[in-house]
Amino acid sequence: MTFLSFEERLKRRLCVGMNIHFVFILFYFFEFMATTLYRFTDAEGLVHLFENKHDKNLSSYLEVGDIHGCLHLNGIPSGRPSPIAITKSLLDFDHLVCDFDETITEHDTTSSFDTLANEIRPVHYADPQLSWSEILQAYLEDLDKVAVGDLCHLNASMSTSTPSSSSTSLNMDGQQQQQQQQQQQQQQPHRLLDPHIRELKCHVDGRTFTPEPETVVPKIPSLQPWIHSQMRKRAVEKVSLDRVYESGNLVGLTRAQIRAYGREKIRLRPGVVQFMKLFIEEQDRKERALKQELGDEGVPTVDSHGCRKRRGELWIVSVNWSQDLIRGAMDQIFGSEEATERYLPDSQLICSNLMFSYEDHQELQKRRREKGDNSGSEGTADVTTNNTNNTETKSQDQGRSGDEIADVDVADKRSKQDDAAEEEAYLSNGQVKVNCLTGTDKLRAFRKIQEEYASKYGLAPVETKWAYLGDSSTDLGCLVEADVGIIIGNSKSLLVECERSGVQVIDVHVKKPKIK
Ligand SMILES: *[C@@H]1O[C@H](CO)[C@@H](O)[C@H](O)[C@H]1NC(C)=O
Ligand SMILES: *[C@@H]1O[C@H](CO)[C@@H](O)[C@H](O)[C@H]1NC(C)=O
Ligand SMILES: *[C@@H]1O[C@H](CO)[C@@H](O)[C@H](O)[C@H]1NC(C)=O
Ligand SMILES: *[C@@H]1O[C@H](CO)[C@@H](O)[C@H](O)[C@H]1NC(C)=O
Ligand SMILES: *[C@@H]1O[C@H](CO)[C@@H](O)[C@H](O)[C@H]1NC(C)=O
Questions:
Q1: What's the mean pLDDT in 492-498?
Q2: What's the pTM?
Q3: Which among 110, 114, 352, 488 is the best mutation to test ligand 2's pocket, defined by most ligand atoms within 8 Å of the CB?
Q4: 417 lines ligand 2 (CB under 6 A)
């Protein structure tokens, strides 16, 4: 019976009639195996895991704490798994995809850009029309205002699926409940799958937005409510961005300034920093070993499973607005801009980004000159960088006071052209190029990464294993999608979302004092 219903579901999902049993086995495997996440409230635990993975005594460093949600039929055997038992599945990955805010960083203060902008915005620059806290307030009010039902395209699917009430009780009757859900689905197909949806426009307070560029089909059906919540958030997020643009809060920053801020002011989680270092060191080792094996650039080696071996890569997928801020933070980990470029090339950093444009550059330069005539513009850019000689010259200029005017002029002439050339490309115009707003965007990005990687190297999807490291409910889709999903920190909302979606979470703690 159960088999039949699964098959039915599969056929509908995959639109295939071929070798259904084979697909079924895969499906079954993914459906259950991948829905266990591990949670390290303390990122140091990850380091122990990595460093002591061959140590039979791992239990003296780590212990398994609470297990949230149901125990799966064929996943972890019932009872408490030992750290050694979970190590194998936890470290079974080639590539690492990470969230940024609060996963790699210690805090997410949404006011970070405000602080940054205030610090480095030229003093003579127009003050923002809306303060950051006003924007934040408006955002929160919007969030209250927008009911999921308001998102017109969600109407149909919301009325049928109410798994929030039932999925938490998916204990003994896992299969029964699956059937129940499936019946619901039969009665009313998910409108989310309708391609017309993406053409819809919705409105919040007269502002128009397109809810989703395209709809995401979740890996496990119980993730549907999460998808809805992310779409709702996405809508409000878009409206809120308009306010940020209007406020002019982000105008006039340079890329170098932002990067320096990331390098100097953003505090990272020491455990994650160490974990990432260990990861890239291991990949370097792997690469060296491969080189030796191959002589020089030979054909890729094929391991005993017929998989082509190569080094594992690092990606960051974030809803942050600035890639330069993230690069700056990563400079802290890798040690230099060159190393950051090597370990995290631009193509492996997926997030939104401030836009930098020429017109605003002219405007800014004009105002800077006007202002510069009657006062020294101190505080324009306290943050100096080693990026180029230009920026250093600039910040020297700014530090000079009236009695050094002659010098300034000389310096000005010398560097003006270079300055102009640099800033032309690098001054923010106050807008954000949106790549990633919420969890559904992240999920889409994560899938794209996997697909592109597989096609680039001609690999079948099963030939690579992906770990995802995240902290918040925007990460749930990716965490579930990954082969290994690791939660950092103790976000309550993420845990609630996991329980609501029937996703099991196993806590792993560092054993406090003991040996080391
Ligand atoms: C493993 O732990 C046991 C008891 O805790 C200890 O006697 C033994 O020396 C440890 N082995 C290693 C390799 O640390
Ligand atoms: C970007 O990252 C910083 C550092 O984690 C954080 O404080 C800030 O709130 C983030 N900005 C956005 C828009 O996510
Ligand atoms: C959404 O649902 C509400 C009430 O359930 C209804 O009034 C509204 O017309 C629906 N909107 C669309 C676009 O279906
Ligand atoms: C700038 O470079 C010098 C040496 O090249 C180094 O000592 C210094 O720490 C660097 N400063 C920053 C802020 O990176
Ligand atoms: C700075 O200028 C010196 C000489 O003018 C040059 O050798 C050096 O490469 C420059 N450094 C950067 C980072 O552009």
A1: 94
A2: 0.69
A3: 110
A4: no
